[in-house]
Amino acid sequence: MLPRKNRIVSITLIAGLLMTAAIAPAFARSPQRQSDAKLQKEVRHVLVMQPFYSVFDNLEYRVDGDRVTLVGQVVRPTLKSDAEKSVKSIEGVAAVDNQIEVLPTSPGDDRIRRAEFRAIYSASNLQRYAQQAVPPIHIVVKNGNVTLFGAVANQGDKTIAEMRANSVPGVFSVKNELATDK
Questions:
Q1: Of 109, 113, 119, 105, which Cα lies nearest the Cα of 165?
Q2: Below-70 pLDDT ranges, the chain
Q3: Rounded Cα–Cα distance for residues 158 and 161 (Å)
């Protein structure tokens, strides 16, 4: 029989080894998760910093390991290619699948975009969103159909944005894809 002090040390060592064996798989995955989170943050930053990215564009992405898929809609074709080049230059990105749609050129859609911006961001409840460098409510207009993307603070703001968007003359439909923080 081992002296009492040695038994306590042995039991402590065994318990420590068992805990290490149970926790090790979580730590093994941890660097990958941190890498994915870091890559997602970098991709988001690069997209938001595009010089011609505006409230009339919608850029989204998916990260699968070292592959990035770009989706959304843009008014200018150069924004599509610039976004792809910028994301490709990020360390850790092996491939970029650029599925961004370039919206058709239309004076009617341009008029609707401007009217939608005024209607939405002039609402007293929504004016605070217009103060940001790239306002969070994105207005995508394609052939007279409007889709709202982005995020607002609450359901009330989401409803007001949709009502204001529906008030613009010449709009065929409004689809509200806004997310809420709550």
A1: 119
A2: 1-34, 182
A3: 5
